[in-house]
Amino acid sequence: MIVKDKLQKAAVGARQQAGNQQEQDVAFYLRRAFKDEDRVRVFHDLQLCYDGEFAQIDHLIVYTFGFIVIESKSIKGEVRVNAQAEWSRSYRQQWQGMPSPIKQAELQLRVLQEVLTNNDKKILGRILGIQQGLGGRCYHVLCAISSDAIIDRTKAPKEVAAKLVKTEFIADAVKDLMRLPKLLPTALRVFDTRPAFNSGELDSICSFLLTEHLKLRPEEQDLVRAAKPQSKSGAREVDVQTVDLWQVVEKTEPNPAEPIKTAASDTSPLVNGLCKHCQSWDQLSVHAGRYGYYLKCHVCQKNTALKQPCTQCHSQQTKVRKEADKYQVQCESCGYGWRVL
Predict the structure, then answer these.
(1) How far apart, in Å, do the first and last CA atoms of the chain sit?
(2) Pairing label, strands 2-4, 40-50
(3) 102, pLDDT greater than 60
(4) How far lies 137's CA from each of 34, 75, 247, in Å?
(5) What is the rounded distance in angstroms from the CA atom of residue 227 to the CA atom of residue 90?
(6) What is the DSSP letter of 236?
(7) Is 296 in contact with 284 (CB distance < 8 Å)?
(8) Label partner for 321 (CA 20 to 30 A): which of 50, 124, 153, 273?
(9) Of 336, 329, 333, which Cα lies nearest the Cα of 292?
(10) What are the Cα distances from residue 25, in Å, to 30, 166, 196, 325?
């Protein structure tokens, strides 16, 4: 099942255009393999944040037994991985080093784990009075490389080589990692001891991840239309919207004993973002300071810088630019840019 598609944006330069095409190719094979599989939920272009660390995940598989992060990498020519798991690539017959996409995917997976494990009570709830958790789940990473690239993995460590996959084989690699059983009653799966999510838990995980994504990408809310599901008794009420994207908006009743903190005393307009201190996302305003643009939180009264490391090459050499009411981060190392507000 495809939960979230990639928002198509105009590419700036040949490199970004090639990267977009590679992500579309991977998305094509994943859609063809899993669009009708209810035990597998697929996200494309998912952004998460935990404690000031950002992760932009090209492709995420949420399935019965866990999670798989897939990093798409567009490479023309040849790529080599040595015995120390260091990467190099050929460009116009010249060899140069490059960041490891496997390491990049592992960093993204770490943010995903932090986001999930610190919110497991919200996501999974209780069964028979016992708090459900995320312990024992499977967490994997894969790197999908352009089909026309040449991969030299003869000296690569086995655990690294196993994670490198040509684009056309990505669905097969995902199936090998998931090892989904045949549709048998749980009691008959005597040889598979992995803890499993049921369909309702998968729905809850996907809804939560989409909520977190939309806190960082509020502009994508315009892509959706309302489609409200049936809510379970005692469960929190949500609105789920979908066209190419599901949006989940939590509806909470205010506590009359607690006054709601707002930015009434501040004339700056409120924006949707994410406070790294208290995780508030709808009581923020943008300001320009000595060190650049930042978000002021009117709940905890602390600031969060808009400047972020590059989500592609992890360089710290980035700048925040404002165009009308939009804010974009531009990497000075690789040229990649993305909108943050």
Answers:
(1) 29
(2) parallel
(3) yes
(4) 20, 32, 25
(5) 48
(6) P
(7) yes
(8) 50
(9) 329
(10) 9, 11, 30, 33
